[in-house]
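User: Before I run my own analysis I want an independent prediction to cross-check against. Here's the chain; please return only the structure tokens and, at the end, one sentence I can use as a sanity check.
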Amino acid sequence: MNVHELPMILFTVIAQMCVGAFIILGIMQLRLASKHNTTTVERLTLPVLYVLGPIMIAGLAVSMLHMNDPFHVLNVLRHFNSSWLTREILFGTGFAGLGFVFAITQWFNLGSQKLRTIIAILAALVGTGLIICMGMIYMSLKAVPAWNTPIVMIHFFATAIILGALAVAAALMATALIRLHKNKNTAPVAVPEKPVATDGKDTLGWKRNATAINAPTTQTEWTITANVVRALAVTAAITGMLIVITYAIHISNLANGNATAQASAAVFSGGFFITRLALLGIASVVLAIATYKIAGQTLHTNPAPLAWIVIATFAITLTTELMGRSLHYDSMMRIGI
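Assistant: Structure tokens:
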């Protein structure tokens, strides 16, 4: 593991995961909103949303450790017109800020639904811009053959998709477990609908959201959750296979390049790389297939078997993506140096 680059490994992987999860959660919310009432949709999406913000802020804080002196970030921000690093920082803080604003407006039911949708779309676009900036930081370095390739951008977006999908799936299952535990020995709590006053404002606001989040999972909600988890498992499996295929292309291109490129290709061999691929295969294929099968058989009164498989899949995939990012930094070999 590349300990020297650990702050950047954590930041890039966590930030990409958060962007992927936010976008996937948005797509999920839009699709469900066309078929189900607002209360049901928010019961499924709000708990996931409130997990993303703190994780993103933690990732940004960790990345500043790479500069030795965090105050150096102020100097970096001066070069937006010429520096992809400056753009990365601005897009990263922009995504975190917009995501925070969206979470607050959702929780306290501030503004219209249209306004909140616009904020969410802006956050998703800025998040996508963040990943592009991350990729361009490395792709623009022509002296580093292992980085001066579109494969870097593909792998960064693949990380966003696979971790984003599994993070949402794990959050959905964790929510189901927590609700079951909280209500196991207590009387069921009814989920209040959203009464609207004549002025169009939500008369319960955040109190309704707090009650809704803690209420037991209904059969309808569980059916939706199981179907969503199955779709996310398929997404993770396809993305995992894409990563493996692009690795083969990347290694082949480096092996057929100059001496520096060939030296970089050697990084993608040995026990660490094989372990990375093995864990990726176990998580994105074996466990994803198991998740798909079990999700259709699990009852909402006993979500634990499915929940722990999904959470384990996410944990293993997160580990293997951190390993992959470590290999990315290990392959940094410059021409002529």
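Sanity check: Residues 219-255 form the longest helix (37 residues).
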